[in-house]
Amino acid sequence: MTREEAIEIILEEKLSNYNLNEDRENNEDEVVIKSRDNMWAIYATDERASKVPGSEKIFENEETAWDNLIKRLRAGKRLRNSYADTN
């Protein structure tokens, strides 16, 4: 998928906790996508806004990277909703 398609999904599905290649510090508990030298990195941050060890995946294909980002954001939403349902 393209960046524009990913943003459309994010808005339609009300996904949250992401950094879309923004020039800023990471926030806590978010999924980050960054471009580096024609490569795309996706990783999660923890409660201290630090990269979670082992969470980073590097993609050579931008479309695959955006697919992975949406997959992770959807999983995070399901997890938050599941937690909210138990409390």
Give the structure's gist in a few sentences.
This protein has two helices and four strands. Helix content is 40%, strand content 21%. The longest helix is centred in the C-terminal third of the chain and has 25 residues, at 62-86.
Describe this structure in words.
With 87 residues, this protein is an alpha+beta fold. It has one domain. It is built from two helices and four strands. The protein has a four-stranded mixed sheet, covered by helices on one side. α1 (3-12) runs parallel beside α2. The relative contact order is 0.20. The model has no long low-confidence stretch (mean pLDDT 94).
Major sheet attributes? 4 strands, mixed
Low-confidence stretches: none
Structure class: alpha+beta
How much of the sequence lies in strands comes to 15-25%
Determine the N-to-C terminus distance.
Answer: 35 Å
Order of helices and strands: HEEEEH
Q: Which radius of gyration do the C-alpha atoms yield?
A: 13 Å
Biggest sheet strand order reads 1-2-3-4
Mean pLDDT: 94
What is the count of distinct domains? 1
Report the total helices.
2
- Helix-residue proportion: 40-55%
Shape: globular
Number of E-state strands: 4
